[in-house]
């Protein structure tokens, strides 16, 4: 599944000359324009659309569907409208609501999973770890990051601690607190998920060849 957020405001671009001039004269132009639009009630929206590719198609499709530089042809996999995102409120405190915001792709909705795109998989692990280093292990208790339901975590010490629980900080424990569980059965799949071939450019290949074996200087 590939996600697309399509702007409902239309697309109107500056010329390169205008953009260069604006960057030097007013670097916050775009951010202030968004803030002012929300403030006056002109709420910007984006429509969420998805493309759906059956799992079996990914094995034989003419491009690697997990390559983030590739676009799935809309003729083969049309866009399906899912919903709309509306920005209708500005932050009140920049530090607590913006600087301390912690977005991470590992916060997935039940029923969705992760593709074998290596760029995505690296971020699934690294983003949450970066937040723990930047904001502390309790970053999910910060109001801007807190989910609608209570966070049940055994991480209680450290910075940003706002819970005062006396529960044990380990599992399993004698209190009978919840422990991590796995729902459903794990499906087993076999075979290659990503393309392993690599066709290097000719000049690059020659440079690499000279670094691994002596060059015949008579034919260089």
UniProtKB/TrEMBL annotation:
<keyword id="KW-0575">Peroxidase</keyword>
<feature type="compositionally biased region" description="Basic residues">
    <location>
        <begin position="180"/>
        <end position="189"/>
    </location>
</feature>
<dbReference type="GO" id="GO:0042542">
    <property type="term" value="P:response to hydrogen peroxide"/>
</dbReference>
<dbReference type="GO" id="GO:0020037">
    <property type="term" value="F:heme binding"/>
</dbReference>
<dbReference type="InterPro" id="IPR020835">
    <property type="entry name" value="Catalase_sf"/>
</dbReference>
<dbReference type="GO" id="GO:0004096">
    <property type="term" value="F:catalase activity"/>
</dbReference>
<dbReference type="GO" id="GO:0042744">
    <property type="term" value="P:hydrogen peroxide catabolic process"/>
</dbReference>
<dbReference type="GO" id="GO:0005737">
    <property type="term" value="C:cytoplasm"/>
</dbReference>
<protein>
    <recommendedName>
        <fullName>catalase</fullName>
        <ecNumber>1.11.1.6</ecNumber>
    </recommendedName>
</protein>
<feature type="region of interest" description="Disordered">
    <location>
        <begin position="164"/>
        <end position="189"/>
    </location>
</feature>
<keyword id="KW-0408">Iron</keyword>
<keyword id="KW-0560">Oxidoreductase</keyword>
<dbReference type="InterPro" id="IPR018028">
    <property type="entry name" value="Catalase"/>
</dbReference>
<feature type="domain" description="Catalase core">
    <location>
        <begin position="1"/>
        <end position="179"/>
    </location>
</feature>
<dbReference type="Pfam" id="PF00199">
    <property type="entry name" value="Catalase"/>
</dbReference>
<dbReference type="GO" id="GO:0046872">
    <property type="term" value="F:metal ion binding"/>
</dbReference>
<dbReference type="InterPro" id="IPR011614">
    <property type="entry name" value="Catalase_core"/>
</dbReference>
<keyword id="KW-0479">Metal-binding</keyword>
<keyword id="KW-0349">Heme</keyword>
<comment type="similarity">
    <text>Belongs to the catalase family.</text>
</comment>
């Amino acid at each position: 599944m590939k996600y697309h957020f399509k702007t409902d405001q239309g697309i109107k671009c500056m010329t390169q000359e205008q953009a260069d001039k604006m960057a030097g004269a007013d670097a916050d132009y775009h951010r202030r324009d968004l803030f002012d639009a929300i403030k006056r009630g002109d709420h910007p929206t984006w429509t969420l659309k998805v493309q759906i590719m059956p799992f079996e198609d990914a094995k034989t499709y003419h491009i690697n569907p997990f390559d983030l530089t590739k676009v799935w042809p809309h003729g083969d996999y049309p866009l399906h409208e899912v919903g709309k995102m509306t920005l209708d409120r500005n932050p009140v405190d920049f530090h607590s609501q913006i600087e301390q915001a912690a977005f991470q792709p590992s916060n997935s909705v039940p029923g969705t999973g992760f593709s074998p795109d290596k760029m995505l998989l690296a971020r699934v692990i690294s983003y949450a770890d970066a937040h723990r280093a930047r904001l502390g292990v309790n970053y999910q208790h910060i109001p801007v990051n807190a989910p609608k339901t209570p966070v049940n975590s055994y991480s209680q010490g450290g910075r940003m601690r706002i819970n005062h629980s006396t529960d044990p900080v380990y599992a399993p424990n004698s209190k009978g607190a919840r422990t991590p569980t796995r729902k459903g059965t794990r499906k087993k799949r076999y075979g290659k998920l990503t393309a392993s071939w690599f066709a290097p450019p000719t000049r690059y290949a020659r440079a690499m060849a000279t670094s691994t074996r002596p060059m015949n200087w008579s034919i260089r």
